[in-house]
Design brief:
This is Cytochrome c. Helices cover 47% and strands 0% of the residues. By secondary structure, the chain is mainly α.
Length: 138
């Protein structure tokens, strides 16, 4: 009988700890940290700019990325593959692309090994989503 009580208490304690842990895990799984994403942006800034006054460099400026059609930044010479990709950038498409750009758009000019860490991708996404098409922070 005592063993049964101990097992029940252990299960109750486990259940209680899950109730407190799961919301934190769910938040971590779904949202990114823009501050951490700004640090990840350092991997991008050699080729891209973002924010007010951003210009095209080796790669296009990244203002207002989400909701934009691929290959449409004014003044940037995109690859034919990028222009023909039919992509409209959203969080899921960006995550797939940034993991392995050449796999998502074969023929892209972007030379980047990719970001494999899911949390880093969410963080970078949160950072990018702060900027509207004019580079103003939302």
């Amino acid at each position: 009988m005592q063993a049964l009580v101990m097992q029940t208490l252990a299960r109750t304690a486990l259940f209680a700890s899950l109730l407190f842990t799961l919301p934190a895990l769910a938040q971590d799984a779904g949202t990114g940290d823009a501050s951490a994403g700004e640090r990840s942006w350092n991997k991008c800034r050699a080729c891209h700019q973002i924010g007010e006054g951003a210009k095209n460099l080796v790669g296009p400026q990244m203002n207002g990325l989400f909701g934009r059609h691929s290959g449409t930044v004014e003044g940037y010479s995109f690859s034919a593959a990028n222009k023909a990709s039919g992509i409209t950038w959203d969080e899921a498409v960006f995550a797939e692309y940034i993991r392995d750009p050449k796999a998502k758009i074969p023929g892209t000019k972007m030379i980047f090994a990719g970001i494999k860490n899911e949390k880093e991708i969410r963080d970078l996404t949160a950072f990018l989503k702060q900027f509207d098409k004019d580079g103003k922070k939302l």
